[in-house]
Automatic annotation (TrEMBL):
GO molecular function, one term: ATP hydrolysis activity
Keyword check for Zinc: yes
Alphabetized UniProt keyword annotations: ATP-binding, Competence, Ion transport, Nucleotide-binding, Transport, Zinc, Zinc transport
ABC transporter domain residues: 4-238
Protein name: Zinc transport system ATP-binding protein AdcC
GO annotation (BP), single: establishment of competence for transformation
Family: Belongs to the ABC transporter superfamily.
Record carries keyword ATP-binding: yes
Pfam families: ABC_tran (PF00005)
Organism: Lactococcus fujiensis JCM 16395
Gene3D superfamilies named among the record's database cross-references: P-loop containing nucleotide triphosphate hydrolases (3.40.50.300)
Stored PANTHER family: HIGH-AFFINITY ZINC UPTAKE SYSTEM ATP-BINDING PROTEIN ZNUC, METAL TRANSPORT SYSTEM ATP-BINDING PROTEIN TM_0124-RELATED
C-alpha cells in the first residue's frame, strides 16, 4: 500500500528554485533512506512532503488510511530535536509517556498496555535504566534516543526521520537501524530516513532515494534499489 506519493514537486526559496520535478513514493512495510550531498535540500524535501513548506508546483499525496483501514499515524523527527536544555523539567519516563496521550486523548488515563508500550520503547533504545533521570542530565546521544523512544511510544504507521542518529555512537546507530528494519518488516511500518552516511545503513534499508545536482544546477532524484536479503541478523524484538 502506498503511504506517500510525490509527483513533479518543485520548491522555491524566494525566486530561487531548489527542488525541481521531484517524484518518489514510499510503500507500507519498507525502510527507505534519503541521501544527497550537503545542500541537496533533503530536509526541504521532507518538509515539503509533509506540508510544512508549500511547493511551487507538483502533487503530494499522503494516504489517509493505514493497511488496516485505520487513520494513518505519522511521526516526524526533525534535526536537532534533542536540544533540551539542562533545566528541562521532565523525567525520561514522563517525556516518553507523553507520546501516548495523543492516542487516547489528553484527559484519559493511561492503562497497563500504555505503560508496557512506554517500557518497551525505552528498552528498545537502551534507556529504560535512565527512566527516572531528568532529561537535562543526559548526554546529547541519550537525549536523541529518548526522543526516538517517545516517537515509538506514539506507535505511528509512518516514520519520517531527519538524521536521527546524530550524536549516537556506532553501536547505538546500528541498533537503531536494526530497530527500523524490524518495525518495517515485522510490523508493517514505513520508514523514510534522511542520512548522510548511506554505507552505514545500507545493510538494513530496502531502498535509497538519492538527491543529486543535474547539469543545470538543479536537484533531481533517483532510486537506488538494494539486492540484500530481507532478513537481518540479530533483529531486535519490538512490540
Amino acid at each position: 500500500m502506498r503511504y506517500i506519493d510525490v509527483e513533479n514537486l518543485t520548491f522555491y526559496y524566494d525566486r530561487e528554485p531548489v527542488l525541481e520535478d521531484i517524484s518518489y513514493s514510499i510503500e507500507s512495510g519498507e525502510f527507505v533512506t534519503l541521501t544527497g550531498e550537503n545542500g541537496a535540500a533533503k530536509s526541504t524535501l521532507i518538509k515539503t512532503t509533509l506540508g510544512i513548506l508549500k511547493p511551487k508546483r507538483g502533487k503530494v499525496t499522503i494516504s489517509k488510511k493505514n493497511t488496516r483501514g485505520e487513520p494513518l499515524r505519522i511521526a516526524y523527527l526533525p534535526q536537532q530535536v534533542a536540544s533540551f536544555n539542562a533545566g528541562f523539567p521532565s523525567s525520561v519516563k514522563e517525556f516518553v509517556t507523553s507520546g501516548r496521550y495523543p492516542r487516547r486523548g489528553w484527559f484519559k488515563k493511561l492503562n497497563a498496555h500504555d505503560e508496557e508500550h512506554v517500557k518497551t520503547s525505552l528498552e528498545a533504545v537502551g534507556m529504560w535504566e535512565y527512566r527516572d533521570h531528568r532529561i537535562g542530565e543526559l548526554s546529547g546521544g541519550q537525549k536523541q534516543r529518548i526522543a526516538i523512544a517517545r516517537m515509538f511510544a506514539s506507535d505511528p504507521d509512518l516514520f519520517i526521520l531527519d538524521e536521527p542518529t546524530t550524536g549516537m555512537d556506532d553501536v547505538s546507530s546500528a541498533d537503531f537501524y536494526r530497530l527500523m528494519h524490524h518495525a518495517a518488516h515485522k510490523h508493517g511500518k514505513s520508514v523514510l530516513m534522511v542520512t548522510h552516511d548511506p554505507e552505514e545503513v545500507k545493510e538494513y534499508a530496502d531502498r535509497n532515494i538519492h538527491l543529486f545536482k543535474d547539469q543545470n544546477g538543479k536537484f533531481a532524484c533517483f532510486d537506488l534499489h538494494t539486492d540484500r536479503e530481507q532478513n537481518v541478523k540479530g533483529e531486535v524484538q519490538h512490540a
